[in-house]
């Protein structure tokens, strides 16, 4: 089949698209694909949600079916958009009903369990081409990476999936599922671990960071808004992509170790060792060897406007150790990872995280303030101490593979911050729009 505009229009009229799981991502896909002109879209969630979904979509062309059997037996392209934790069970249930010759895809954030489920439960006569939008359901997909994984498929079917996804205007990136999981362990799992640890540490100290001078203004606003954004979302998304991805455990464990190692040097005031460790790590990630990457060029002052605090930021800026950022760079150095090579799978949150880390390391006076604060500002030690404990706690939870433990830890901190979720979502959306503006250039 050719890819001329007329053949794509023909596909839009003839090809039936199916979505199993009408949560946030399933809905986003169904609504957008319908807006892009795909005429035949069938969707389902759990049978218990059938009537509610039917009512919700009654004035649209989206066809709500009772369950995944009904979707699987008729659709030419089927996307599973369910919890990663449930992918094996759901594919085992509906996979055998997949229509001969159709294409099966998944939206889960970690691909090894998804591909294994497909291989285990799908008939041999169906194609497997998975995908992953590297952003949340409320972010504009334009220009954001959208990973495609051609696992078991003809080129013709791959082109069809390309056509289906092309309306998102995302940056289509082809990867193997192994590379996807290795890279997203860094762009997502470790990034989330850092922000989850910040939130848990603030809670452990009974602090609302927007009320404290050393957490207000500039890059501190990113820490606060992103941490709150993560805690306002569904725990299973973060738990799944951390616990079910074997590379994520290694990286999160190293992150917690880097946090602890640096903290030990700080409290012993081992200045020379601390400095040389930061210098070596900084040179590895941001030094001349990496000159071919495109810097994110986030400016601390640009970030001043995204504050949850009522206090004007300029007047109250106080130095912080930035232990979370120093440890991130130490972790990349120790694992010999180049985060710029991971930009193919960047999410808006990773871009913000990289942006503030890069900013700190490229601003000698700011880095020097952070090093001085880390070694000698004793009044912030209690904050850093809690951060160390929480980073270790999250790493242990992921290493133990406990979804239930993860849920409890996540929800107790979410509860502490819930009154500010709405305000931080507004600021977070603005920050993401700002950081996504120059995404195409990287
Ligand atoms: N949210 C995000 O930012 C992103 C998420 N993803 C990934 O996409 C997937 C979906 O995430 P998201 O939409 O946020 O999560 P949601 O919890 O909003 O959606 C999952 C949906 O699947 C439904 N479901 C569970 N079992 C079945 C079943 N047997 N048949 C039909 N439907 C079922 C759930 O129903 P119920 O709730 O009633 O159990 C729920 O409505 C996850 O794997 C996530 O990792 C990928 C990119 C971004
Ligand atoms: O940007 C992030 O890291 C998010 O928190 C949103 C998100 C969550 C899960 C994904 O698989 C992709 C994006």
UniProtKB/TrEMBL annotation:
Q: Which family does it belong to?
A: Belongs to the prephenate/arogenate dehydrogenase family.
Give the GO biological process terms: tyrosine biosynthetic process
Span of the signal peptide: none
Its recorded reaction(s) are:
prephenate + NADP(+) = 3-(4-hydroxyphenyl)pyruvate + CO2 + NADPH
**Species whose genome carries this gene:** Mortierella isabellina
Q: Which residues form the Prephenate/arogenate dehydrogenase domain?
A: 15-296
Pathway annotation from the record: Amino-acid biosynthesis; L-tyrosine biosynthesis; (4-hydroxyphenyl)pyruvate from prephenate (NADP(+) route): step 1/1
Q: Which GO terms describe its molecular function?
A: NAD+ binding; prephenate dehydrogenase (NAD+) activity; prephenate dehydrogenase (NADP+) activity
Which leading EC class covers this enzyme?
oxidoreductase
Q: What is its EC number?
A: 1.3.1.13
- What's the protein called, per UniProt? Prephenate dehydrogenase [NADP(+)]
Q: Which UniProt keywords apply?
A: Amino-acid biosynthesis, Aromatic amino acid biosynthesis, NADP, Oxidoreductase, Tyrosine biosynthesis
Q: Keyword check for Oxidoreductase, yes or no.
A: yes
């Amino acid at each position: 089949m050719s890819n001329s505009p007329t053949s794509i229009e023909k596909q839009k009229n003839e090809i039936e698209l199916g979505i199993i799981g009408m949560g946030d991502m399933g809905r986003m896909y169904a609504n957008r694909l319908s807006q892009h002109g795909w005429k035949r879209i069938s969707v389902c969630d759990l049978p218990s949600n059938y009537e509610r979904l039917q009512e919700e979509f009654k004035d649209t062309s989206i066809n709500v079916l009772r369950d995944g059997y009904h979707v699987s037996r008729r659709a030419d392209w089927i996307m599973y958009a369910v919890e990663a934790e449930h992918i094996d069970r759901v594919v085992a249930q509906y996979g055998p009903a997949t229509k001969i010759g159709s294409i099966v895809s998944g939206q889960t954030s970690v691909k090894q369990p998804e591909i294994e489920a497909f291989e285990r439960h799908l008939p041999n006569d169906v194609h497997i081409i998975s995908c992953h939008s590297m952003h949340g359901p409320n972010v504009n997909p334009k220009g954001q990476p959208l990973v495609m994984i051609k696992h078991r498929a003809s080129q013709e079917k791959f082109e069809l999936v390309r056509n289906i996804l092309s309306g998102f205007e995302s940056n289509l990136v082809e990867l193997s599922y192994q590379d996807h999981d290795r890279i997203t362990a860094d762009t997502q799992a470790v990034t989330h671990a850092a922000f989850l640890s910040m939130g848990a540490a603030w809670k452990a100290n009974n602090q609302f960071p927007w009320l404290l001078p050393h957490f207000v203004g500039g890059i501190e606003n990113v820490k606060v808004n992103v941490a709150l954004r993560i805690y306002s979302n569904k725990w299973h998304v973060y738990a799944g992509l951390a616990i079910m991805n074997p590379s994520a455990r290694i990286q999160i464990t190293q992150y917690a170790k880097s946090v602890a190692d640096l903290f030990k040097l700080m409290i012993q005031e081992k200045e020379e060792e601390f400095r040389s460790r930061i210098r070596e790590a900084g040179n590895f990630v941001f030094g001349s060897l990496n000159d071919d990457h495109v810097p994110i060029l986030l400016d601390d002052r640009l970030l001043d406007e995204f504050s949850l605090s009522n206090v004007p930021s300029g007047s109250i800026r106080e130095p912080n150790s930035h232990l979370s950022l120093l440890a991130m760079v130490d972790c990349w150095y120790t694992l010999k990872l180049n985060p710029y090579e991971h930009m193919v799978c960047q999410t808006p949150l990773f871009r913000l995280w990289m942006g503030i880390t890069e900013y700190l390391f490229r601003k000698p006076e700011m880095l020097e303030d952070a090093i001085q604060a880390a070694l000698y500002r004793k009044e912030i030690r209690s904050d850093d101490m809690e951060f160390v404990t929480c980073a270790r706690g999250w790493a242990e939870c992921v290493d133990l593979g406990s979804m239930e433990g993860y849920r409890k830890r996540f929800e107790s901190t979410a509860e502490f911050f819930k009154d500010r979720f709405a305000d931080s979502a507004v600021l977070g959306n603005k920050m993401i729009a700002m950081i996504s503006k120059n995404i195409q250039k990287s």
